[in-house]
Design a protein that fits this description.
CATH superfamily: P-loop containing nucleotide triphosphate hydrolases
GO molecular function: ATP binding; ATP hydrolysis activity; transmembrane transporter activity
Number of strands: 10
Shape: globular
CATH architecture: 3-Layer(aba) Sandwich
Keywords: ATP-binding, Nucleotide-binding, Transport
CATH topology: Rossmann fold
Family: Belongs to the ABC transporter superfamily. Macrolide exporter (TC 3.A.1.122) family.
Protein name: ABC transporter related protein
Strand order of the largest sheet: 6-7-8-3-9-10
CATH class: Alpha Beta
Oligomer: single chain
Largest sheet: 6 strands, mixed
Strand content: 25-35%
Bound molecules: adenosine-5'-triphosphate, magnesium ion
InterPro entries: AAA+_ATPase, ABC_transporter-like_ATP-bd, ABC_transporter-like_CS, MacB-like_ATP-bd, P-loop_NTPase
């Protein structure tokens, strides 16, 4: 489903070049619930952004469902991302002037040939799944952090992606809400065989994934299956 070979990322700051990801290779299977862990600055977000088509590696190749994404143009990559990938961020990244409903609808702007009734059906189904139907007309400033993250999950899923990348999705949530969000993501994984790839420090997520990949200084030092 997802394959990366020899990924390297070098950041340049003035004269100084810093190699933050070093020759990283990995494979993730369809339907896996997997997380990157490791100290702050070890490169988790950098890897997630490259795998999720938000950023490009300095070297190396990435395939998602046998499509090579590293050779694509910027526009092709944006298109591919819209149709295949969902992204959930620590800080929710909702659009403040749009309602809950419109925020969820937003990624579908990229999806052509989707009839209006199908569009509505999908959004309403997701609003129900994340328990936000009654809040659908509110703007993000009128809902809580946990509710914002539920909207962000619905937004990440509306394009029916094969894979969802979630960078610290529970970091800004209280423990009870974090558990709810995690249960919701697991339910979606089971129901639709959606692959979830996390980067996290959260023990609650760590305790629930099938596989843990530990990064230190941009290298995989452990890749451990947590359950059969
Ligand atoms: N845009 C950038 N320009 C320069 N350096 C960067 C940039 N983004 C990240 N870095 C550096 O790359 C390294 C890896 O950062 P990254 O954000 O991937 O770590 P992380 O494991 O996600 O950390 P955290 O747990 O704090 O989120 C760090 O040393 C960071 O300073
Ligand atoms: Mg990070």
């Amino acid at each position: 489903m997802l394959k990366a070979i020899g990924l390297q990322k070098v950041y340049h700051q003035g004269e100084v070049a810093q190699e933050v990801i070093k020759n990283l290779s990995l494979e993730i299977k369809g339907g896996e619930f997997v997380s990157f862990v490791g100290p702050s600055g070890s490169g988790k977000s950098t890897v997630l952004n490259m795998l999720g088509c938000l950023d490009t590696p300095t070297k190396g190749d990435i395939w998602i469902n046998d499509t090579a994404i590293t050779t694509m143009s910027r526009t092709q990559r944006a298109h591919f991302r819209g149709e295949n990938i969902g992204f959930i961020f620590q800080s929710f990244n909702l659009i403040p002037v749009l309602s809950v409903y419109e925020n969820i609808e937003y990624p579908l702007i990229m999806v052509q040939n989707l009839p209006e009734h199908e569009r509505q059906k999908r959004i309403m189904h997701l609003l129900e799944a994340v328990g936000m139907v009654e809040h659908k007309d509110k703007t993000p400033d009128k809902i809580s952090g946990g509710q914002m993250q539920r909207v962000a999950i619905a937004r990440a899923l509306v394009g029916q992606p094969k894979v969802v990348f979630a960078d610290e999705p529970t970091a800004n949530l209280d423990s009870k809400t974090a558990h709810m969000i995690l249960d919701l993501m697991k339910e979606i994984q089971r129901k639709y065989q959606t692959t979830f790839v996390f980067a996290t420090h959260d023990e609650k997520i760590v305790a629930n994934v099938d596989r843990l990949i530990t990064l230190i200084d941009g290298e995989i030092v452990e890749d451990k299956r947590m359950r059969p």
